[in-house]
Amino acid sequence: MSHAARTPKIVETAIKVTPEIVAEHGITPKEYARIQKILGREPNFTELGIFSVMWSEHCSYKSSRIHLQRLPTHAPQVLQGPGENAGVVDVGDGLAAVFKMESHNHPSYVEPFQGAATGVGGILRDVFTMGARPIAVLDSLRFGSITSAKGISANGERPEVVARNRRLVDGVVRGIAFYGNCFGVPTVGGEVEFEPGYAGNPLVNVLALGIAPKNHLFFARARGEGNPVIYVGAKTGRDGIHGASLLASAEFTEESQKKRPNVQVGDPFLEKLLLEACLEAMASGTIVGIQDMGAAGLTSSSCEMASRGGVGIELELDRVPQRESGMTAYEMMLSESQERMLLVAERGREAEVFRVFRKWGLDAIEIGRVTSDGMLRVLHHGQIAAEIPADALAEQAPLYQRPLTRPKPSPAREARVSLAPVGTDLSANFHGLLAAPAIASKRWIFEQYDHMVRTNTTVFPGAADAAVVRLKGTSRALALATDGKGRWCALDPRVGAMQAVAEAARNVAAVGARPWAATNCLNFGNPEKPEVMWQFSEAVDGMAEACRALSIPITGGNVSFYNDTLGKSIDPTPIVGVLGVIENAAATLTMAFRNEGDAIVLLDGRGNASATPKSHERESLREFASSEYARTVAGIVGGVPPAVDLAAELRLIEALVALAAEGILASAHDISDGGIAVALAECGFASNGLAAEAAWHSDAPAELALFAETGARAVVSLSQASLARLLTLAAKYSIAALVIGRVTRGQFQLSLNGATVVRDRPASLRKIWSGAIEHAILGEQASKQA
Amino acid sequence: MKIGVVVFPGSNCDHDALHAVSEVIHTPAEFIWHQSQDLAGFDAVILPGGFSYGDYLRTGAIARFSPVMNAIARFARSGGLVLGICNGFQILCEAGLLPGALMRNKGLRFVCRHVHIRVETAATPFTSAARPGQVLRIPIAHAEGNYVCDATTLADLKHNNQIVFRYCTPDGRLDTAANPNGSLDAIAGICNRERNVMGMMPHPERAVEAALGSTDGLVVFRSLVQSLARQPAAAVS
């Protein structure tokens, strides 16, 4: 490349940098002074833009970094922790699992279809950038209420809000399906919840998992002075400019709908070509380093690769493939056009790289080179449009220890459910619970996703607590589950975050997998609010404590702040995605009952042989007030989340993994939303016409016994002949095992202390549970036709 | 014996089809790049599922112009066995190698689930190991699987026994509720008059191992391999 025309001076931009312009870029006067100090001069408009995206909350983690350091990230199996495009763990047989979760919340509210679609696209690129082929996607979604009576939702949302929530669900689901189905990655699981707090700020968190040979990983590091910097993929347009800084790093206001042009548009077909071309180029041994152009596009990919490699990068923007004419350096550096990658190749082997990308019909252009001076230098029209130390952009963003304030305890914590008199038939309440969107079947959603492509999915969505994909050519399989407890975190962020980790780990163990590593996506409100920052700090501590206790390292993730609309923050919602390894894929368990006559056993990690929580009665009632039953049946959102007993969780996990490996279980299902009653019903729904017939003794009130959501518990089924072995193993792992019933082809029936409390035909229960979400979104009539 | 799996830009069930043939029924298989003009050495060709060219204009509408499609048309004319699965079926219809077209599903949504299909004829090289009336449990995964054709074509298909699979209930009855996409006459798969080209919307390659929840798709691949073994290699070069 020729630099003859280059002037030694940084070009003066037409737009002058004024205090107003600085403020518009979300840069504080203090941060501006820091920029001046780093440069030793005033930045021009282009440089200001580059700083503003790299130092945005979204890219720099400036409010969260200090707290995130408290998370456990090291373990022998961790090959790459936080700081790369995705985390990497060794899963045996020479294979590495590459996985990460990321949010696309604000774009999905502004434009649900494209917002969700590009959320999928972004996280897939993070995974294949590292040389891994994506083999599974999970989505963790949160919306406002979709059900209403006489137009008003149970939580008081107005009809137009409920209608909008339904449209958001539909758009997001279609967007995920559009992208993942075409790209050819199975969408195998995840979860969705509906709470009023998300009506103005839905959450779309996407987790992607890829597989690579562990000795053939790629990193976002540039090296080798003179090596070519090559741009591949889609052309650059004006779309998505300031997506990271304005959409993802600021609160939502009534003006936010005007930000629709800031949402990118996805092209999954192009991404599929990009995947194949990148993997092929990587196999050729010509690639030195590679990074996708996600948030802050060309800027972040170049300065991060330079910074990590301890080198500089010089870009010549006139060579960048452009979709529009007359783009300025500012626009090109900040564009978030999708499906683009930046790579550094071995000098002299460019032709091989170009050949691969040409084969796949993609642009691949040398747009710059690696330098030794540590600068990100941007050339445009023969002039230096920007020149900034790469490290200053990638690593020297200000770090904030923002003030924390513990909010006053909410009076909701004292809420109580008024319990039904002894002997009440609870069937009607149970029906209501089965139809609650949090519990009802998610079939309408997951059938719109191709969850089987690549023929690795061995446990389909809804069939078990975790999704399972096999690793072809090995005897192993990987399990994945995501969990988040926003409602509980609002009541107690520390306990809520611990519960999320515990449940995700339990979910993975319930299919027989050993929890191996985790990724997270931390969705919170505006970090400049001390109460929000307190929630964040508490949640991080809770997550750290639970991960430590369960020996689950966190290998990366994402923080999404500023989830506020019209000044109101969402419930703090840390989502965790736990990856587990099943040594013998043939021993994978699902929740489905398999054989009539099998024994049903309640396992309790606490080790006391009782089916009900043993804690003090008053505490049990406070905890019960935060259950799904309390919300759905009693209309109460309050109380406190169930206390977490991490030692008990660990015992249960170890026991489930051992029991699965022994092959004596027919089914396993953890107890969560809706308690034992719902767990037992679900084991039947997943089966071929079987149901539970259970009867046990309880000192607690019937509703607590059936519907309490105390953790560290699971229900399993197995042949009567294997019972003795189960009891031996339970004793070995110090967990309680209480035989509570048997699998039947007859009625679903639950009895307490000799009295039947719920009794129904399995088919009628199934009908209530299976159609609720579809009816809510499409209306009863439309859902029948679909 | 060697079976080819065509790779169009955007094919995404190519690896799955190759796996089913080579790893599950242990028959040699190779990918065929869409720009290939020569099928020499291949005894049968599979057009796999996916989103060729993103399916952006209309499913299969651009893929039919790939260089390999000329070769496939010649291969088919000379009696070579061609199996189109999902997007492959759509491409075969667009290319005129099979009659009719695949429209948007009646529910206007992508649908991925196991369905039941009934083998309507065993007199094809793709179903010869099955028995007529046999019910297979095989997944579908498509947004455009709603088969349509005009009345004359439908009459011809029936008259010539070209309807190979129909969507049905688990016990083999035809029922509107068992038709997942609104296909005319519950058609899930058809063959050409010469019976050497078949297209089907369900994915047999996703039902070849117990770990995947069904092995009912094996019969399609086994039939194919047995047919090839019985007859001399297609007179193609």
Q: What sort of overall outline of chain A do the alpha carbons produce when their principal axes are compared?
A: globular
Tally of strands of chain A = 28
Q: What gyration radius of chain A follows from the Cα positions, in whole Å?
A: 27 Å
Kindly estimate the percentage of residues of chain A that lie in beta strands according to DSSP.
Answer: 15-25%
Low-confidence stretches of chain B: none
Give the oligomeric state of the chains in this entry, treating copies of one chain as homo and distinct chains as hetero.
heterodimer
Q: How much of the polypeptide of chain B forms β-strand, as a percent range? A: 15-25%
Q: Main beta sheet of chain A: strand number and arrangement?
A: 7 strands, mixed
Placed side by side, the strands forming the largest sheet of chain B appear as: 2-1-3-4-11-10-9-6-7
Which percent range fits the helix content of chain A?
25-40%
In the sheet with the most strands of chain A, the strands line up as 8-10-7-11-9-12-13
User: Ranges of chain A with pLDDT <50 over ≥5 residues?
Assistant: 1-7
Tally of helical runs of chain A = 27
Q: Structural class, judged by helices and strands of chain A?
A: alpha+beta
Number of strand segments of chain B: 11
Q: What is the overall shape of chain B?
A: globular
Task: Describe what you observe in this structure.
The complex is a heterodimer of chains A (786) and B (237). Chain A has 786 residues and is α+β, with helices and mostly antiparallel strands. In chain A, 35% of the residues lie in helices and 23% in strands. Chain A has 27 helices and 28 strands. In chain A, helix 7 (112-128) runs parallel beside helix 10 (268-283), helix 18 (493-510) runs parallel beside helix 19 and helix 18 (493-510) runs parallel beside helix 22. The longest helix of chain A is centred in the first third of the chain and has 25 residues, at 159-183. Chain A starts with 18 loop residues before the first helix and ends with a helix. Chain B is an alpha/beta fold and 237 residues long. In chain B, 22% of the residues lie in helices and 24% in strands. Chain B is built from 5 helices and 11 strands; from the N terminus they run E-H-E-E-H-E-H-E-E-E-E-H-E-E-E-H. In chain B, strand 1, helix 1 and strand 2 form a beta-alpha-beta unit. The A-B interface holds A 174, 177, 181-184, 267-270, 272-273, 360-361, 446-455, 457-458, 460, 470, 472, 585-586, 785-786 and B 9-10, 12-13, 15-16, 19-20, 23, 49-51, 53-56, 106-107, 109-113, 139, 141, 143, 203, 205-206, 208-209, 211-213.
